[in-house]
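Q: Got a minute? One more chain.
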Amino acid sequence: MPGAKESLRDRLGRYREMELRVIGRKSGKEISRPVWFVLEGDKLYLLPVNGSETQWYKNVLKNPRIRVAARDEAAEFRAEPLNDKNAVASVVEKFREKYGKADVKRYYSKFDVAAVVEIA
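A: Always. Here it is, folded:
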């Protein structure tokens, strides 16, 4: 599926929002949610809106398999939770650069965790 991932990377490079699908930790069902992201090289950074209280993040802790979609291109990956203070601060700064400090402040309430996905 390398071709699909390349096409997905191209689309992620053009969009501000993607679809994140996780497996519910209690239901076992696939749950879809639009999220902001930052793509840098082969790394996709995710910042939960409510930090460690965000439901999709709690689901990733139980099952790190996720599906990332940008319009009609999608692929499965493994998300790695980040809780190191410096790593999380770096992701927050990436989001501020992409979306603006005001919008990050407006929509994000807790900055204690993040996630990174290798899309190579």
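A: The radius of gyration is 13 Å.
Q: Perfect, thanks.
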